[in-house]
Amino acid sequence: xxxxxxxMLVVFGASLLFISIIGDFTSKGGYENDGPRxxxxxxxxxxxxxxxxxxxxxxxxxxQESWDTMSDEQKMISLYEIVTDRFTHNExxxxxxxxxxxxxxxxxxxxxxxxxxxxxxxxxxxxSLICSQSSYLLMQLALKSGIRARHVGLNGHVVIEAWxxxxxxxxxxxxxxxxxxxxxxxxSVEELSRNIDLxxxxxxxxxxxxxxxxxxxxxxxxVSYPVGAYFEWKSQVLFYFEKIAQILKYLIPFLIxxxxxxxxxxPNNRKxxxx
Length: 275
Known about the structure:
- By secondary structure, the protein is α+β, with helices and mostly antiparallel strands.
- It is 53% helix and 9% strand.
- It has one domain.
């Protein structure tokens, strides 16, 4: 009976290892994607040729030959356009059995554990994100380009703000909005929330009911520390847990295989185990 158990453990562990390898090195490792909304500027060819954050930044620089002499605002607009061209919206990029069998399983019990938090996985495995994921990705692109940026949680929507010209400026890659005033200056969340007419113009109903969300200033959450953090501490913890789980998805099945082999090849220990 224990011999059968040892074989079962080896097969089970080896199967999980095989699933992890398939997920990391083949197209099976992708997450679920949705087509673009009617007003989205999705470019499928860009999604097919950019598979990392460095690829996205390289594409932004390729589009702008004068990148090194551009202002921070010009760089932010270029990075924003890369994200809006590269991604569509869905209910959230989530782990599958192949991206991470461990997080997929845990996500069935605790939903946030199944959400993909790593921007590297966002880019390499698919092209559909929710607002918090696309905003976080744009924030990472900004930080890697030397521009200070922060997540802003709006109790129903998430955007980012970039710091340049001694002020914060709102960029919303999910709703594809860069709000500007009559002087063409990019506004902050705070400034836009006080200008209802402009807010309604920038966020027509076709894009969702964001007017009340942004106008309700009392529950906005501005987080710029630590640099690169998600807008809430729980998401930050889950981000690091996901990094650990990327190791555990190999380590756990490896240990299962080793334990199964141990039971099979050590008769004395197996006998003791039976008793």
